[in-house]
Specification:
alpha/beta; two-stranded parallel ribbon; UDP-galactose 4-epimerase, domain 1; Rossmann fold; 7-stranded parallel β-sheet
């Protein structure tokens, strides 16, 4: 059977990271294949090459990797919402850990020179005083964080014990116009739009949080720069910590509105456990790997880009 070589295979790639990463690699004339668990008919409008894959079916994973012989495999599959993880514990653990483990086992069988990138999360750390570094202790406070920690540990095990070229990208909050609108920053943008257009109020949960809200294009650029670095764990973020209320202010200021008049708190939207502040020592991984810092998109500029896109596309 004829084999097809490709630069990268993105497993679980129909979300913001998969599409953004694929677009950036395509601009570099790299062939990329995306997999998704959904049937092809449901994502025709996405306009990219896609293969349906069950991450729990090892035979199908084996056939896929054998067929395309990728140089790199990125694992973005998995339930990605911390709040939903309390309701869908088993699905969260299975998708973020078992699926990852299946891919690692297959790489070990087929070709140990394939580079594997696991999308870990800052949620693995839980409540940390001060800035988060690779050495910070890991105490996840939700099933999502626990599942990502299990995925990170199995990836690290295959690197250290079986000598696989396995990387853990520890990713902080990331946004884009492709982000599901149920997540906080897109919801903030839509709340401002709905207030301006329809005089509507929007319910929110905990707004007393501070995060490093990253732009997906920036995060993917950093991911690509680690392709030629030695296998390791690394943090990608921008170091720009802003409160959710500040992001609300940016969004409503776009329309010269006071956000306090258009939002209200709903206790049903509160997480069982939440982390108030999350900051990173983002520059440690960059300096260690001789990767230059860049001008990140964040804060007001990020909000403005998202609102302009939503208005242009009619949501």
């Amino acid at each position: 059977m004829r084999k097809y070589e490709c630069h990268s295979l993105i497993i679980g790639g129909s979300g913001q990271f998969g599409i953004t990463l694929k677009n950036q690699l395509n601009k570099k004339n790299k062939k990329v294949i995306i997999t998704t668990r959904f049937k092809k008919s449901t994502i025709k409008k996405k306009k990219f090459e896609v293969v349906v894959l069950d991450i729990y079916n090892k035979k199908k994973i084996f056939k896929l990797i054998k067929k395309y012989e990728p140089q790199n495999i990125f694992y973005f599959a998995g339930q990605s919402s911390p709040s939903i993880s309390f309701v869908k514990k088993n699905e969260t653990i299975r998708s973020n850990y078992i699926g990852c483990k299946n891919v690692l086992e297959t790489i070990y069988q087929i070709n140990r020179n394939i580079s594997f990138f696991y999308a870990a999360s800052s949620e693995i750390y839980g409540k940390i005083n001060g800035k988060i570094s690779l050495k910070s202790k890991k105490y996840p406070v939700n099933p999502y964080g626990l599942s990502k920690l299990k995925g990170l540990n199995i990836t690290k095990l295959y690197r250290e014990k079986y000598n696989l070229k396995a990387y853990n990208a520890i990713i902080f909050n990331t946004e884009s116009v492709l982000r599901n609108k149920s997540f906080l920053i897109p919801k903030i943008c839509m709340a401002a739009i709905n207030a301006y257009k329809y005089n509507l109020k929007t319910a929110f949960g905990n707004l007393d949080i501070k995060r490093e809200w990253n732009w997906c294009d920036d995060q993917c650029e950093l991911l690509i720069k680690f392709l030629n670095k030695k296998p390791q764990d690394f943090i990608i973020s921008n170091g720009k910590c802003l409160s959710a209320k500040k992001m609300l202010e940016f969004a409503f200021n776009y329309f010269d509105l006071d956000y306090k008049k258009y939002i209200f708190k709903d206790k049903k939207l509160l997480r069982p456990v939440d982390i108030k502040i999350k900051k990173s020592k983002y520059d440690e991984s960059l300096l260690k790997n001789n990767i230059k810092k860049r001008n990140f998109i964040y804060g007001k500029k990020m909000i403005n880009l998202m609102i302009k896109n939503y208005l242009k596309s009619s949501f």
